């Protein structure tokens, strides 16, 4: 009898701990699965973790030794500011009061929306989409970087660097291959962007694709002008 009681009690304890650790494993598994999800648009449903990530501010705080450190933090009300390429407000940590302050940078009419800059200046639509889950046509003026034979190209400096590394003909061929990989053109994508049936995600992705193709078009124009100048110089 005592042996039966002991074995029953042991099996009960063993089953209890087995179930406990199994549930603990599942909770950690789903937690990390949730926080590793990429940020999505606030126009559609998203996880609480990605919403928290998208609404964080970079703020300066004092540590215990009184030194200023930069970190990320949620800031009530300030996290409701939308992004703009020419924002009318800015936020910072006041070193005298240690308060986080937001103020307009120019006169704003009553009832007008207050906007802020998300992170550093000059972000492209791809960076906005990857970091905050959205893109916008107003950020289209910032070139979207594309990779050509392992080299990131966006502006003229990076185009010149790519041409030095690949040579004019090599860069031209790399750009043409990249353009041929796209089944659509900037013109057709721009026309599709006017559709009212696109989901937010489709619209955001299309804006990034348009930016990539514009970078390729500019790079091709740049290298073709260089080759034309070389040919003209050789003819002389």
Describe this structure in words.
The chain has a two-stranded antiparallel ribbon. Strands 3-6 form a two-stranded parallel ribbon. It has a two-stranded antiparallel ribbon with strand order 4-5. The protein has helices spanning 2-35, 48-54, 125-132, 156-166, 168-180, 186-192, 200-235, and strands at 56-62, 68-74, 82-83, 89-93, 100-104, 115-116, 146-148, 151-153. Helix content is 49%, strand content 14%. The protein starts with a helix and ends with a helix. The chain has 236 residues and is α+β, with helices and mostly antiparallel strands.
Summarize the structure.
With 236 residues, the chain is an alpha+beta fold.
Oligomeric form of this entry?
A: single chain
The number of helical elements comes to 7
Uncertain segments are 31-46
Order of helices and strands: HHEEEEEEHEEHHHH
Please report the distance between the alpha carbons of the first and last residues.
Answer: 110 Å
Map the helices and strands.
Blueprint: H1 2-35, H2 48-54, E1 56-62, E2 68-74, E3 82-83, E4 89-93, E5 100-104, E6 115-116, H3 125-132, E7 146-148, E8 151-153, H4 156-166, H5 168-180, H6 186-192, H7 200-235
Helix pairs in contact: 4-5, 5-7
Name some characteristics of this structure.
236 residues; alpha+beta; 7 helices; 14% strand
């Amino acid at each position: 009898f005592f042996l039966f009681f002991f074995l029953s009690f042991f099996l009960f304890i063993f089953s209890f701990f087995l179930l406990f650790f199994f549930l603990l494993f599942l909770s950690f598994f789903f937690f990390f699965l949730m926080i590793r999800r990429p940020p999505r648009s606030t126009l559609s449903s998203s996880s609480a973790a990605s919403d928290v990530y998208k609404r964080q501010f970079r703020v300066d705080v004092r540590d215990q030794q009184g030194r200023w450190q930069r970190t990320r933090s949620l800031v009530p009300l300030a996290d409701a500011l939308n992004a703009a390429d020419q924002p009318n407000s800015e936020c910072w940590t006041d070193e005298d009061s240690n308060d986080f302050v937001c103020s307009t940078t120019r006169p704003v009419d009553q009832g007008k929306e207050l906007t802020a800059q998300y992170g550093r200046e000059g972000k492209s639509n791809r960076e906005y989409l990857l970091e905050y889950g959205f893109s916008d046509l107003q950020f289209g003026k910032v070139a979207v970087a594309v990779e050509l034979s392992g080299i990131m190209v966006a502006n003229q400096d990076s185009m010149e660097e790519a041409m030095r590394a690949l040579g004019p003909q090599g860069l031209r061929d790399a750009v043409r291959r990249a353009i041929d990989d796209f089944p659509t053109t900037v013109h057709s994508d721009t026309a599709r962007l006017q559709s009212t049936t696109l989901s937010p995600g489709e619209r955001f992705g299309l804006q990034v694709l348009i930016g990539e193709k514009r970078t390729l078009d500019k790079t091709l124009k740049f290298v073709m002008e260089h080759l034309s100048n070389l040919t003209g110089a050789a003819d002389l």
